[in-house]
Amino acid sequence: MTQTPPSAGALAGCRVIDLSRVLGGPYSTQVLADHGADVIKIEPPGGDETRGWGPPFAAGVAGDTAAYFVGVNRNKRGLALDLAQEAGRTFLRGLLADADVLVENFKPGTMEKWGLGYDTLKTAFPRLIHCRVSGFGADGPLGGLPGYDACAQAMCGLMSVNGDADGEPTRVGLPVVDMVTGLNATVAILLALNERVRSGLGQFLDITLYDCAISLLHPHAPNYFYGGKVPGRSGNAHPNIAPYETFATAAGTLFLAVGNNRQFEALCRTLDAPALAQDARFADNAARLAHRPQLHAALTALLAGKEAAGFAETLLARGVPAAAVQDVAQVLAHPHTRHRGMVLEDGAYRGIGSPIKLSRTPAALRRLPPALGEHNARFGAPAANDD
């Protein structure tokens, strides 16, 4: 991710009005902003609640706000508007006059209550793409109910397959549903922008945490569809592949992700145990799955004297998927992380770089996350008081 962009970005000229808060919507709009879209983030008078989700707080960035907010709101201009007041809604309509995309994650019905629902807006702004991120959508048995990442993980089966086999259902240790919902919202927006080239019309994009959480159930849903068995928890082990799990070593934890016989044979040769690959119990993936405990025990003994990081590099060089388990500090400091531009720094700001690499129109850091209402005066926005 470059700090002196060689181009304006792939989405230069696209204006996005971002009414979203917390994570799913802001994650999506940051992707768009990284690639050149002019994203105007509009917050309520009290601000996006994640500004207070600390410590830690990012001193000198976005008004000394929480690191959580800073992580998903760069490259945006910031306004504070009270949309419960007519003056705020009138100002918003003015912004929408030359906007391409509106992103919001209000509870379904809120925009309609304010006279800003899609059916109303499409008449005044027929080219506008309106993306709503919500928990469950507006209708159906759960329609209109609020949605949260952890609840979606619980309700949609993710927790049921995450954790140790003899342990409790476990939340994935990051807000994976919110983030994949944000990515799906980004995909939907780009699809709609492309279609608008042909039709000249915008459309309504209905992206829910519920749908996106269910979409993550691979391979567990296909396994259930065709095997009839309700999937359970298997810890770090893959339900369909072996060896595909963690192993203790003399220094650190090693993850092996051996997906075929060639890789397994190479693993055994590297461990100076070629006979293991000839053992009938481990002859192919189906046999290895059937004898996973015995395979795990054999590999654990062979790996006991190894050092995870160095041996993982040896295995990778020989075509065997493997990795030492690293913590967050280790991966952020890794030379390849820096090489790939995945740590971005500018003064007091530090962030994760864009993983989307385009050769001619790369992502870039154009502006730091905004302080609350930072650009109100520049846009002539009405005062928004936090009563």
Model description:
Helix content is 36%, strand content 13%. It has 17 helices and 11 strands. The chain has helices at residues 24-34, 67-70, 86-96, 110-113, 118-124, 149-155, 176-199, 209-215, 220-227, 261-270, 274-278, 285-290, 292-303, 308-317, 328-333, 335-339, 376-379; strands at 15-18, 38-43, 76-80, 101-104, 129-134, 204-208, 244-248, 253-257, 322-324, 343-346, 349-352. The strands form 3 sheets. A 6-stranded parallel sheet has the order 3-2-1-4-5-6. Strands 7-8-9 form a 3-stranded antiparallel sheet, covered by helices on one side. Strand 10 (343-346) and strand 11 (349-352) form a beta hairpin. Keywords: Transferase. This is Carnitine dehydratase.
Portion in helices: 25-40%
- Going by helix content, strand content and strand pairing, the class is alpha/beta
Low-pLDDT stretches are none
Number of E-state strands: 11
Radius of gyration: 25 Å
- Gross geometry: elongated
| Proportion of beta-strand residues | 5-15%
Main β-sheet, in a few words?
Answer: 6 strands, parallel
Distance between the termini: 40 Å
Order of strands across the widest beta sheet?
Answer: 3-2-1-4-5-6
- The average pLDDT score comes to 95
* Helical segment count: 17
InterPro entries: CoA-transferase_III_domain, CoA-Trfase_fam_III, CoA-Trfase_III_dom3_sf, CoA-Trfase_III_dom_1_sf
Protein name: Carnitine dehydratase
Keywords: Transferase
